[in-house]
Amino acid sequence: MQRNLVELRNLKKYFSIKKGIINKSVKYIKAVDDVSFNIREKETVGLVGESGSGKSTLARAILKLSDIKSDSILFDGKDISTLTGNDLKNFKKNTNMVFQDPASSLNPRKTIRQILRRSLEVYKYPKNTMNKLIDEILLKVDLGLDFGDRYPGQLSGGQQQRVAIARSIILKPKFIILDEPTSALDISVQAQILNLLLDLQEQEGLTYLFITHDLNIVRYISDRIGVMYLGGLMEIGPAEDIYHNPRHPYTRALMDSSPIISLDSKTRKRFELGGEIGSMINTPKGCKLSRRCPFAEEICTNKIPKMTEISKEHYVFCHFVNEIDFDLYTD
Amino acid sequence: MNTILDVKKLTIDFKTENGTVKAVENINFNIKKKEIFALVGESGCGKSTIAFSLMRLLAKNGMITDGSINFNGKDVLKMSKQEMFAFRGTEIGMIFQNPLDSLNPVMSVGNQVSESLLLDNISKEKAWEEVIKIFEDVKISDPKERFESYPFELSGGMRQRVMISMMISRKPLLLIADEPTTALDVTIQAQILKVIRRLKDDFNTSVLLITHDFGVVAETADRVGVMYAGNLVEMGNLSDIFKKSLHPYTKLLMKALPTISKKEGRLVNIPGMVPNLINPPSGCRFANRCPSAIDICTKVSPTLKEYSDEHYCACHLLEV
Fold this sequence. Notes:
The structure holds two protein chains of two kinds.
Chain A: E1 4-19, E2 24-40, E3 44-48, H1 55-62, E4 73-75, E5 78-79, H2 85-94, E6 95-98, H3 102-105, H4 112-122, H5 127-140, H6 157-169, E7 175-179, H7 187-204, E8 207-212, H8 215-221, E9 224-229, E10 232-238, H9 239-244, H10 249-257, H11 298-302, E11 307-311, E12 314-317
Parallel strand pairs in A: 3-8, 3-9, 6-7, 7-8
Antiparallel strand pairs in A: 1-2, 1-4, 4-5, 9-10, 10-12, 11-12
Chain B: E1 3-16, E2 19-32, E3 36-40, H1 47-54, E4 62-71, E5 74-75, H2 81-87, E6 92-95, H3 99-102, H4 109-118, H5 124-137, H6 143-147, H7 156-168, E7 174-178, H8 186-203, E8 206-211, H9 214-220, E9 223-228, E10 231-237, H10 238-243, H11 248-256, E11 305-308, E12 311-313
Parallel strand pairs in B: 3-8, 3-9, 6-7, 7-8
Antiparallel strand pairs in B: 1-2, 1-4, 4-5, 9-10, 10-12, 11-12
Helix pairs in contact in B: 4-5, 4-7, 5-7, 7-8
């Protein structure tokens, strides 16, 4: 068993809504509410959920881009909220992020070489080493050396994303968060980028947290998948278990709505949830899904469900996980 | 007559500062009554350009240089401005990716939808009743309350339902849906696709679906046209395209789609890039990326030919 690189312990991230002249917090947006899971070294954990499920807030918290309570996130065994000085610098060097839209995350007035050099400058690498590292990384992401002198605007979306990936790994980090890295790309380019990410992971021993709304992509790239809804974790387990045997009603509904490339997709039976994703302001006291779930009973609205392990490493947060029969509501 | 739309040899150029973009070249396809036809392809392949040309809504620098568009017995390219005005909406309706761009932010959605009904000189009350009925048809919850809502108060899925209501209120023969679910979450996408699937039975409407997502195609389409760099490279029934694809581009694309887990193998990379359409290469536009290209591919443009019942492909390799 690989050791844990990232540990989330009851992670909470609330944003307060302030009102009145004394700025009293009247309500809270519970963007991430009591989420716990681990990410092991060299594995890819996929995080899926619809917009507003808290995936990106969680990502920002892990990279220490927002304030969190102490002891809720551990990186390499250390509580990240207390990191200072060299420890903090080391943490920042070891973690990085790739975003959805490469065009807006690259400075349009700098050449690719300048963009890649920036992070090396922060860590005061000697000039010769910098140039050598930049050449190496350009080749590693399958861009030619001549790309170094171009500007982001002269590159296609796929090439821009390669630059963003190159920048994220140039300091040889351990952990990368990929936030919808292929959502803005065409299918053929998407395949290129996904394969590049898998190759880099093998070569560099990287650990990934892959955030996406696309269930087919998350199945392809991940070892384990976590499913979020309204800031809470609903289910987490090995990728194929989640894909073929989703046990939480939300995961099941998500799988059944996700388009599959198959001739039976028009006629397949689906389990659907009524209504829409609720607001994060007035989330139910118990299970986050209780207002939409056809199986919900009184306990669901009052009590947060405990974690049930239904098979090896496959955990579900549902009061009735062993009793529900999806066929009752499938059509 | 079973065909509602017949497009022949359609060719569209855009004049730009850098030269003429040959955006769409020699496209032939038709759409039958009560059929969902999907045009699928990557960005810049010309699928949306075709959609806009059907409504004659191309940007000012766009020109239809050749071909014909026949809709329900009318020659669309020969119609006058007034005729086009009556034609749009009544015969062909169109919805887009972002409904918020298409809705008036300061008018309640019910009033917006009833506007088109009032063109028929019916009373306001009757139009409102009709709108509420349509809202029910497209599964807008609490249609009476929603009638009074403004676009910003609705979710993305609800806004798209309002757009669909607005379009089908005129009972058009064809609805063009340009990436209608791209901005929506998957559970909401599934609901909207269900509404689109039902249009043909509930309103006798044909649908031209423009998308880049093969999953969406699988969920809705009866027939599919695959586009690449301004050309229609393959066309056929859903099963022809998914199971018996003939064109190298379609075949590779199918293997580039993530339908497996990484333990089962890698996705196929399609090397290279789409050619610049300002001076497109002679011959087949896919030749520079095609793993099995032969001599003739870089010299002569292949033509679309029928290989089995309604299954068309434009590729030299099939003719050798």
